[in-house]
User: Fold these one by one.
Assistant:
Number 1:
Amino acid sequence: MNEVEAPSVGEAPPPAAAAQRRPAASRREPRLGSLAWQGVVGLLALFSLIFMGIALVMNTYGRQQVAEQSAGKLEEAGKRRVEEVRRWLAGEKPLDPSNLQRLSQAWQGEASGYAFLLDGDQRFLSFPRPELVGLTSRGGAKEAGATLTAGEVADRHPGFRPIADALRRLQAGRGAAVPVRVPVRVEMPADLLNGKPSLALVFPVPETGWKLVQVSPKGELEQAADRISRSLLLLISGILLAVLLPSYLFLSRRWITPVTTLAEAATLVRDGELDVRVSVAGRDEIAVLADSFNQMVDRLAANTAGLKQANIELGRSLGLTDTIMEAVREGLFLLTPALTIEAKYSAATRQIFGQEDLAGADFLDLIRRITPERTHELTARFLRLLFNPAKTNSVIAKVNPLKEVEASFSSRSGQLEQKYLTFTFERIREGGEVHHAMVTVADVTARALLAQQLRESQQRMERQAELLLSVMHVESQMLREFIEDAHTELETINALLREGRSAVLSIPDRNTYYRHLADDIFKSVHTIKGTAAMLRIDYFAAAAHRFEEKLAALRGRTILDGSDFVPIVLELSEMVDSLAEIRNVLARFAETQRSLKAAADTSDTEVLSALVTRFVDDLAEKSGKKVVVAFHAFGDLAIPFKYKSALRNVMAQLARNSIVHGIETPAERQVAGKPEEGHILVAARQNNGNLELLFKDDGRGIDYKQVVERVKELAKSEPSILEPLIDREQNRWKLDALDQMIFHPGFSTADQATEDAGRGVGMSAVRDALARLGGRISLRQKMGQFCEFRIVLPNGG
Amino acid sequence: MGVRTVLETSGRLLIVDDSSTIRRSIERHIFSDRVTKIYQAANGREAMELFERYRPEFVTMDLTMPEMDGLTCISKMMALKPDTRLMVISALGDAETAIEAVERGANEYVVKPFSAEDLNVALANLIAEA
C-alpha cells in the first residue's frame, strides 16, 4: 500500500536503527516500460470515452432525422385535408354539419392517423369518436351548444392537454407582432384515442376561424430510434462503470498516489524530517523512484547522524580541553603567527599574567609590560625565528630569551611584584608552515628565590668559615689587639666622614678639605689592610682593599664633593659589620676554647664520682642514714662520651636504691652488729675490652619475704611470671631468680612511693637504659650482708 | 633521506675556532660518515679563505676571534652559500648574541664550556637535518 511512515513524535531513533529499518537489499529490479504499458491502459480509456461521445452525437442526430421525416408526412396529410375541407366548404350548399363528421370519419383509419375540426370558438365540429366531445354519430350537436370546447375536453382527458394548449396559443397569437409558425407542432406522450405517444399538427383552415388537427402516432422507426438511444445511454453508462472506473482506480493507485506520497515525503525531508520513508508496491519506474528516494534519505540520515555524532564528539573534546585548561597548573596557550593569544588558554595563564581576558591579546605587548625593554626586543626577534619554518626546533629552544625571565607586575595595591617566569615554545607545523606555537609559562618565583637564598647563605657560610680559619691560626692576643686597632681606625674614619658632611666651607677650601679627608681615610684603611694581610685575615684584607680602591678613584679626581663620599660611607659600614663579625667569631672561639680546656683539666671519672658523692650525701642526710662512698681504680679511665649521660642516671638510681632499700639506719646497723655508717663502693675498670662498673653496698640486701609477697601479688594479673621462679622438683623458690625480679617492670617493694624510691620503674629503667647501649646489669647479694650490681658495657662501641 | 641524499652530500666540514684545543675536541666528536673531509681555521680571515675554496656543507663557528668576528663570518658564508649548515660554538651565552647568530643563519648553537653530550647532540642535529 502507499503510505508515508509518519516520523515518530518522541526522540529520534539512533541513526543505526534507522538504517537497519530499510535494508540495502530493498533495491528492486526495475521493469522498465511497465509505465508505458500503464499509459496504454490510460489511452484506451480515453479512446473509449471519445467513441462514446461520437456514438451519442450520432444517435441524437439520427433520432432528429427520423422525427423530421414523419413530421413531414403528417404535415402533407394535414394540408391535404385542409384542402378537402376548403373544397367541401366551397361545393356544398347548404352546409350539413353531419357531412363534416363523415369526412372526419373518413380520415380515420388511414395510416397517417386521424384528424378533426374545431370552430373558431374551439368547439368540436367533428371527431372520430363524437361521444367523447358531445357530438352525435351523424354529426351535429346532440343539442344546441352541447359540443364541448378543446379546453373542456382537456379538463376531462389529460392526454388532450397539449393540443388544447397549442390551440390557445394559436388563438392568442392571432394579431400578435410575431406570427405563430403554422402548423403548430405538438408532442403528445399519450394520445386521447390510441393512448400511444403521438405527434399532432394544428392547421388553421383558411377563410374560416376553423382549426384542423391532424394526429398521428409516432412511427416505428421513430420508436426504434428512441430505443436505440436508450440502450446506447445504458451501454455508455456500463462502459463508464466497467472500464473508466477501474482504469481510474488503477492509474490513481499506480501514478497519482505514489507521486503525491513522494511529493509529501520530499516536503517532509526538505523540512528536516529524516525519518520519512516511502513504500510503493510494484517494480515500475515510480517504485524505483521511491526506492531511490528512500536510499537517498537513508544516506542523508546517516550523514546527518554522522555529523551530529561528530558534533557531539567535538563538543565533548572541547569540554575536555576546557577541563584540562582549568586543571593544568602551568600557563598554557597557543600563539598565532600574528603573535596574538588564541581563545583557549589555561586558567593558570590568567593568574601568571594577572590579567583576566587574554584571548586575542598581543603577546609582545604583555612581554613589554612585564619585562625590561631589551627583553622585549629580543623576544620580538626570537618570535620571528620561531615562526620561521627553516629554523630547527633544537636551535629555537636554545636561543629562547624567555627561558628564565624576571618579570615585574604591578599588583592591585599598586605595588610592584617580582616574578620569575619560564617560557617554553613548541612549534606546531602544518604543511611546512609553523601555524601555531604552543607556549607554556610557569611561575618559578619560589624556586628562583630559594636558589638565591641558597646562594646567599652559601656565600655567608663560606665567609664565616674563612673568618674562622683566619682567626684560628692567629695568636689570640694579636688578634684581639688587631680588632681593637681596626675598630679605632674605623671609628676615626667615621668621625672624619661625619665632620666632612657637616663642614661649611667655601668652594676652593672645600675641595682642599675633601682631598685631605680622602688622604686621611686612605691612610687609615691602608693600615688596617696591612695588619689584616699580615695576620692573614684574607677576607677582611680583601674588604679593606676594595675600600682602598674606591678611595684611590676618589683621589684621582680634580674636584671633590661631599656626595662623592657616599660610596665610601657604604663601604665603611660594611667593614664595620665585618669587623663585628670577626669579633663575634673570636668571642665564640674563645668560649669554646675555654670550655674545652676546662673539660680537659678534669677526668671523666672524677666528674662522675663527684656527682655520685654529692647525690649520696644529699640522700643520706634526707633519710637520716650515714653513708661513706669509696671509689676504686677510677682515675684515668676514659668513659666514652655516649655513655656519660646514661651512666650518670644509672649511678643515681643505684645510689638511690642502695640508700632507700639497702643501707639500714644507724640503730638497725648496731643491732645487726655492723658499723653505724654504711659503705658504698664504686669501682671501674677495663676488662677484655669492656668497661666494667661495680656498685656495692653493705646494706641488708634483698628481703625475700617482701619479694615473694610482691611476686604473688603480681602473679594475680600475670601468672606466667611464677614459672621461672619456682623449683618444682624441690618445691621451693629459686632465690637467684627472685633476685632478678627487682628488674621486672612494675616491681617495687617500697611500702609507699617517695621522691626517691617507688613507682616500680627504677631498676627496670636501669636495665633498659643499659640494654640500649648494648650493656647489661647483674645482681649478687647476701641477705643482711651486701648487695652488688655489676654493669658491663662494650668499650668504645 | 636514504642513500640518495648521502651520495648527493659530500659532507665537508670547516671548523673555525681560535683555540686548537677546541678544534681538536670538535674533530674528535665527528663520527658521522656524512663528514668526509675536515678543514680547520683559527680566525675569520682564514675561515673565509677555506670556505671560498672548499665550499663546505657544514661549519662550526666560534664567535670571538681575531681578524674577523664570527657573526660577520656567518653573514658572509650564508651570502655565498645559503644552504650551509652552520653551528655556533661560543663562550657568549647571552640571548642577544644567540638570536643574532640564528638570525644570520646559524642552525645550531652550543655554549662553551660544553659537554661531550651537548656537542654530540648538536652535531647530530646539524648533520642529520641537512
Note: The mean pLDDT of chain A is 78.
Number 2:
Amino acid sequence: MKPCNLSIVDMFDYVQVEGGKGSPTLPLLIFRKGMKNSARTLAIIDTGLDEALLLSKEIRDILFVESGPPDTHESLWAGVVEIPCEIYAVSVKILDKWWRVNAYAPIYNGYENLIGKLLLNTVNLCLRGPTKKTCISKG
Amino acid sequence: METGIVKKIVSAVHDSPKSINQIAEEADIGWRTCEKYLESLKLLGIVEETRTARERIFSFRGGGGRRGWLFPHARKILGNKIERSYETPSEGGVESLE
C-alpha cells in the first residue's frame, strides 16, 4: 500500500440533497462585472460535467438582474438530451483563488449549482465518502 | 420530449433499475406518459429494458461522449442559501480558465 502524503488545508462536510443522499460540495463566490457584491453559495462536485460551472436558476437570476443579459448562448448535452443554456462570463472564487470562467445557466428550472472538471482540476480533492468529508490538500 | 420529465425519469433509474410503476411514481407522472418516455429513451440508448414474468424493468445505460455531462443533476441541495459578500476580485487577481 502506498502512503498518502496529502496535507489537508480545508475540510467540508457532505450536504444533504433531495432524495436524502449526502453529496460532496464546495463553497463558491461568484461575481460578474457590474455587480456590487459577490454571491456566496454551495455547489455540488460533479466530475461528469466537462465545463467549469453550472448555475442554478437562483444564481442566474442574481447575475441577470445585477449585471445584465448573458454573454452568449450554447447548449450542453447530457447523452442525447440537449440543455440550452445562457452563458455568463464570471469570476469564481474556489478556496482562495479567483478564476475567470464561462458559467452555464440552463434555461429550464430545477438545476443545482455544479462545479465541473475545469474548476475541479485546479484543486487537490480527497473525497472521503465513508466519513462524508471533502478534503482539500496543498498543491 | 419535455426535458423536465426526461430529467425526472433519468434520475429515477440512475441509481437502480425500476419498474414503470416505480418510475412513474418517483417522477410524479402518469403510467402511460412514463411508458411513452421510457420507450423513447430506450430507442435513444439512454435506458435499457429487462422483462420479467410480471413486469418491465428499466435501468440507466449512461450518456454519450458529447460535450456536456453524464446526466443532468436534478437534485437540489437542501437548505442551500445564497449570501452576499463584499469580497470581489481585484484587478489582475483573476486567472482565466477558458
Note: The two ends of chain A are 22 Å apart (CA to CA).
